[in-house]
Description:
Helix content: 10-25%
Shape: globular
Keywords: Chromosome, Metal-binding, Methyltransferase, S-adenosyl-L-methionine, Transferase, Zinc
GO cellular component, one term: chromosome
Largest sheet: 5 strands, mixed
Number of strands: 14
Distance between the termini: 41 Å
CATH class of the domain at 90-272: Mainly Beta
CATH architecture of the domain at 90-272: Beta Complex
Mean pLDDT: 80
CATH superfamily of the domain at 90-272: SET domain
Order of helices and strands: HHEEEHEEEEEHEEEEEE
Subcellular location: Chromosome
GO molecular function: double-stranded DNA binding; histone methyltransferase activity; metal ion binding
Bound molecules: S-adenosylmethionine
Amino acid sequence: MENVLPWLEPRDVAALALTCRTMAAAARDLTSCRAADAAQGLEGFGIPVVNCVDECRYPYFEYSPVSVLARERRAFAFPRSISEKNAAGFDYGQFGGDGCRCIDCCRGEQEDPAPTPADLPLIYECGPACSCTIQCCHRLSQRGASAELKVVRHPTKGWSLHAAQDIKPGAFICEYAGELLTTKEARKRHQTYDQSPRVTSLLVVREHLPSGDACLRFNIDATNVGNIARFINHSCDGGNLLSCLVRSAGCCVPRLAFFTRKEIQSGQELTFSYGVVEPGLESSSRACFCGTSQCRGILPSEKT
Ligand SMILES: C[S@@+](CC[C@H](N)C(=O)[O-])C[C@H]1O[C@@H](n2cnc3c(N)ncnc32)[C@H](O)[C@@H]1O
């Protein structure tokens, strides 16, 4: 029973709870466990869920700290044999192979600072092509959420992610994990989501290649499978988080990671900008309640 129950949606858990006392007790334990930790024990620390606003329960989704391939639902594993200069033209010489900086830091030179995001939207980390372990300081964004957080119900924005401790500027918070979709599948899901009242979390990320005239698009859908980042709301003033693309040596697809842009106090909501409102889509967009002086009144959305 304990193997099956955690995978059920709240309404099915509630239905089972009515069948007998044992089920009722197990369902009660599971519900309080879900409410006690939004990350279901899969991050390094518990992430409490707070709702002082309405009766809405914590949403059901499969928690995954890393992105997974859609359908197959397995952790996104990158090929190990990748040339130092891959097809997209990225040079991993600094990280992969003999000259890998991570080898130095694994020998004990821990003083070497991790790459900081500064204003750069793209940062490089060690990856499958390197010989270092997950403790390497060049794998900052690969160890899961790194600050104490809480999920808080907001009266107009739904669930939101808040800091549960003071956080310094430039600190890594978490990556945006979800199902990696093909563009065809993303378009299909977008159409379905547009007709649904359900809150959805499909993000389209575009990376401009060095040539400038092409861009790599990847789609991360955290609606059904995702991590704590799926609760980060939009802010028209850019918010207090910087989203960065992280390229890891040996990985073909970059990841999206969030760093703090400024000092954040415990209790503050964490937000970032979802992008711009594309012309022609104003009427179909949802209302924005970011509450900043720069609020445009509608949430950014885009043609997929
Ligand atoms: C990635 S989810 C963020 C978490 C979401 N609030 C929830 O309840 O799960 C994106 C959705 O949150 C809501 N949202 C995000 N930012 C908002 C804002 N500034 N104003 C109103 N709704 C917002 C929208 O429904 C949006 O489609």
